[in-house]
Amino acid sequence: MATLITRGGRLYVDFRYKVKRCREGTTLEDAPQNKRRLSNLLKRIEAEITLGTFEYSKYFPNSARTSEFTTHESAARMMRGDIPLFADFAELWFSEKKIEWRDSHSNTVRISLDLLPKNWTVLSEKILV
């Protein structure tokens, strides 16, 4: 159950996500129209949590907790298979690009890929180009 809290004339939202209590401050002052706005926001957040589509960073991008929940969301997407592991992506990329290259270049790239650890579990979305 999400609630609105007033402290020092400002509004805060209080809810549970992934078994953790989350309290986030807003810049909104304690006024009826702001309470109505936040109440609608909390209903949307609760609905997304129930459906499993809630993204913490979408609603609270500057929160200290954003990075904590982002890693959980990435791991969950990996478990569902939405994001390939780098090793799997690299093999797919190599097989698609191999036909464009000369044999000598293809062999050089294959050697580089063979140097990667076989149990490398880095998500392809975390690798910067």
What does the average pLDDT come to?
82
Low-pLDDT regions = none
Report the total helices.
Answer: 5
The largest beta-sheet arranges its strands as: 1-2-3
H/E topology pattern: EEEHHHHH
Count all strands and give the number. 3
Number of domains: 2
Radius of gyration, taken over Cα atoms and rounded to an integer in Å = 22 Å
Task: Specify the structural class.
Answer: alpha+beta
Distance between the termini: 42 Å
Shape: rod-shaped
- In terms of DSSP E residues, the strand content is 15-25%
Bin the helical content. Answer: 40-55%
Major β-sheet profile: 3 strands, antiparallel
List the helices and strands and how they pair.
Layout: E1 3-7, E2 10-17, E3 20-29, H1 32-51, H2 56-59, H3 66-80, H4 86-97, H5 103-114
Antiparallel strand pairs: 1-2, 2-3
Polypeptide structure, described:
The chain has 129 residues and is an alpha+beta fold. It has two domains: 3-80, no CATH class; 86-126, no CATH class. Helices cover 49% and strands 18% of the residues. It has helices at 32-51, 56-59, 66-80, 86-97, 103-114, and strands spanning 3-7, 10-17, 20-29. A hairpin with a 2-residue loop joins strand 2 (10-17) and strand 3 (20-29). The longest helix is centred in the first third of the chain and has 20 residues, at 32-51. The radius of gyration is 22 Å and the shape is rod-shaped. The two termini are 42 Å apart.
